[in-house]
TrEMBL record:
Origin organism lineage: Eukaryota, Viridiplantae, Streptophyta, Embryophyta, Tracheophyta
Organism whose genome encodes this protein: Kalanchoe fedtschenkoi
Domain notes: The histidine box domains are involved in binding the catalytic metal ions.
Listed cofactors: Fe(2+)
Membrane topology of this protein: Multi-pass membrane protein
Pathway, per record: Lipid metabolism
Domain of life of the organism encoding this protein: Eukaryota
Domain Fatty acid desaturase span(s) in chain numbering: 39-259
Protein name: Fatty acid desaturase domain-containing protein
């Protein structure tokens, strides 16, 4: 049951909330120039960077590797993929991983960082702009000691915005304003909204193969948009699994990449649910 929506304007705004709102507004404003700055090179740069930051950065690195430890990588490759996630402008690894671990610990409860019980808007994007409320619900990021022990992640946390915005001059020098519009604005908006639909849409609409005790849903359309993350009910049933599309017909591009990395000897300790795990789970 939904609660009264969290006030958006009539509350205390943390400085980081203001900055994030400004960045989001700037990215969406850049998209307004997209029809007037369209070139095929700019389009393909945006598409390529969407895969680099969305698949390699967010779904493979931030989510399945760092948050759930579904597989291991050599440190040089782990850090390279994590840096791709930094370029997605969804937060530094420590912040992202901490929030998602809290989501699984408190799924769809009053302490869930982006629970849909507080409304679709809040679960989609409102929670990102309310740092004080997240701290009030979950406390400080005390569940990422594994990342805080590593100097690389501490360094990225302290210098995050420099790295996140570093592509701007690179894109401009490579292809002018069209590359900035499509390689930054359009790409960031598409990847971020796609990621957010897992929090909002996949806790409202779709099918349920497993009784997970929460509102998670499998949504094939969101799975296509998010490189396999839309098989969200499967994920909540076996959150440690490197594979989210558990059936042969459930397209999971991220799992395909993990399989290739494993075949190349770069991914190890790949975790998958066995038939025994599935029988013990609450299948519908």
């Amino acid at each position: 049951m939904e609660r009264k929506p969290r006030p958006f304007w009539g509350r205390r705004w943390h400085p980081s909330d203001v900055f994030k709102l400004a960045v989001l507004a700037a990215m969406h404003m850049l998209c307004l120039f997209a029809p007037f700055c369209f070139t095929w090179p700019a389009f393909w740069v945006g598409a390529a960077l969407s895969v680099v930051t969305g698949l390699f950065g967010i779904t493979l690195s931030y989510h399945r590797n760092l948050t759930h430890k579904s597989f291991t990588l050599p440190k040089w490759l782990e850090y390279a993929f994590a840096y791709c996630g930094v370029l997605a402008l969804e937060g530094d690894p420590i912040d992202w991983v901490s929030t998602h671990r809290y989501h699984h610990r408190f799924t769809d409860s009053s302490k869930d960082p982006h629970s849909p019980v507080e409304g679709f808007w809040f679960s989609h994007v409102g929670w990102i702009l309310d740092r004080g409320y997240l701290t009030e619900k979950c406390g400080q990021a005390s569940n990422v000691s594994d990342l805080r022990k590593q100097i690389f992640y501490r360094f990225i946390e302290k210098t995050y915005y420099f790295h996140a915005l570093a592509p701007v001059p690179v894109l401009y020098l490579a292809g002018g304003f069209p590359f900035v519009v499509w390689g930054l604005g359009v790409r960031v908006v598409v990847v971020r909204h796609a990621t957010w639909t897992v929090n909002s849409v996949c806790h409202r609409w779709g099918t349920r193969d497993w009784d997970t005790g929460d509102m998670s849903r499998n949504n094939w359309f969101i799975a296509l948009l998010t490189f396999g993350e839309g098989w969200h009910n499967n994920h909540h049933a076996f959150e440690w699994s490197a594979r989210h599309g558990l059936e042969w017909w459930q397209v999971d591009a991220t799992w395909g990449v993990i399989r290739l990395l494993e075949a190349a000897g770069l991914a190890a300790d790949v975790k998958l649910p066995s038939e025994a795990h599935k029988k013990m789970a609450f299948q519908r």
